[in-house]
Write a structure and sequence with these properties.
Blueprint (H helix, E strand, L loop, with lengths): L4 E9 L2 E6 L2 E7 L1 H11 L4 E5 L11 H10 L4 E4 L5 H9 L4 E4 L1 H5 L2 H10 L4 E10 L2 E6 L4 E6 H11 L3 E6 L11 H10 L4 E4 L5 H9 L5 E4 L1 H4 L5 H10 L7
Parallel strand pairs: 1-4, 1-12, 4-5, 5-6, 6-7, 7-10, 10-11, 11-12
Antiparallel strand pairs: 1-2, 2-3, 7-8, 8-9
Length: 251
């Protein structure tokens, strides 16, 4: 059995790590390079960096930051935000990123998923899905959750798998930043819908929430931000509890 992964997420805006609730009311959470180094030392399995304003501002993710992070890390990291072409991906990988995450550009041009997978391998392609449950239907949103689409989460998940995505990062906008737990029912349904790994995101507040994401949600990895940034949960403590709950983790 593959070990379940714990992934701190760093939302980047203007070169700083930020955190909000339901995608708004952002507050500063620190220097991304310093945080990245700290998480690697504390036992994180991977990291995700999302430049949350890159798409809205029509620019690429800052390559300097990616390069600086790569110099400090010995664990894989994923970068997302403002990626619109194979050339954008190539630049990020050359500067040290291990995977890339696309959301808005994947919805607007689904063939981009296939193009990236063909050139760099499916393992490099993480499709991020920010979804909000509206009238019992999970609707995909773009540009940092600001633009609703007509795409439904589970249909879109199946589509990206067929196009060659290697992983799905599902963030519940309803749960994001609330610390009330992950969207476990939706996670479980996602895991039944596709055969590629699912990263749970949105709602982590306690160690039990992670246990539930793996046991109930059937997630392959769990991602969180504020509980790690503000040291509400220590990764070592989290992994010990997961292990005692018969969840395979890298200790």
């Amino acid at each position: 059995m593959l070990a379940k992964r714990i992934i701190p997420c760093l939302d980047i805006k203007n070169g700083r790590t930020v955190k909000g609730v339901n995608f708004v009311n952002l507050i500063d959470a620190g220097n991304p390079v310093e945080l990245a180094k700290r998480y690697a030392e504390k036992g994180a399995d991977e990291l995700v960096f999302l430049d949350i304003s890159a798409t809205q501002e029509g620019r690429q993710t800052t390559l300097t930051m990616v390069h600086d992070v790569a110099e400090q890390l010995n664990i894989p990291f994923t970068v997302g935000g403002g990626i619109n072409s194979v050339n954008d991906v190539e630049a990020l990988l050359k500067n040290g990123a291990d995977k890339i995450s696309i959301n808005s550009s994947a919805v607007r041009n689904p063939n981009l998923i296939a193009d990236i997978a063909r050139q760099f391998g499916s393992q490099c392609v993480v499709v991020a899905m920010d979804a909000k449950c509206i009238n019992n239907e999970w609707i995909i949103h773009l540009a940092g959750g600001t633009i609703p689409t007509r795409k439904e989460l589970f249909h879109w998940a199946k589509e990206v798998e067929l196009l060659g995505a290697g992983e799905i990062l599902f963030t519940s906008m309803n749960h994001d930043g609330t610390k009330n737990g992950f969207a476990n029912e939706a996670l479980s349904q996602l895991s039944k819908t596709v055969n590629i790994p699912i990263i749970a995101s949105g709602g982590a507040g306690t160690i039990q929430h992670f246990v539930d994401a793996f046991h109930i949600g059937k997630a392959d990895a769990a991602l969180a931000a504020s509980v790690f940034h503000f040291e509400d949960i220590e990764i070592a403590d989290l992994k010990q509890v997961l292990s005692t709950n018969n969840i395979e983790v890298r200790l």
